[in-house]
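User: Protein chain release factor B. Structure?
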Amino acid sequence: MLTISRSIHIPESELVERFLRADGPGGQHVNRTESAVELRFDVINSPSLPEALRTRVLERADRRLTGEGVLVIQARRFRDQARNREDARDRLVEIIREVLQPPARRIATKPTRGSKERRLAGKQQRGQIKKGRGRPGLHD
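Assistant: Predicted structure:
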C-alpha cells in the first residue's frame, strides 16, 4: 500500500514493476543483475485517485506520461534493486502530492500608470538612439 495522503492510498495491485539492467558504475556485476526499476501506474484507470486529482495529473505536461495515461518512472540511481524500487515509489508519491492542491487562480491586474509611462519613455528613448544612427542631415 502506497500512502499519498490520509485519504488517498494506492494498493500494490495497481503498480506494475519491471526490472532491467542498469548502466553506470558497478563493473561486471552491472551486466549480470537487473537493478534498475521501471514503475508503471495507470492514472486513467486507477480507482484510487479522485476524479479531480486524476485530471490534474493528466494535465501536467510530463514526459513520463504516455498517450494511454500511464505514468512510467525509471529509477536507476542506485546500485541495488531495493533502493531503486523505493526511489521509484517515492518519486510517484511526490508527483501525485504536487498536484494534490489545486493551483491558485490568477487574478488579472492592469499595469499601473507609472509603468505605462516608463514603458513609453523607454520606447521614445530607444527611437531617438536609432534615429541618431542615420547619416547626418537626413532626418533633421
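Residues 2-98 form a domain with the Double Stranded RNA Binding Domain fold (CATH 3.30.160.20). The two ends are 79 Å apart (CA to CA).
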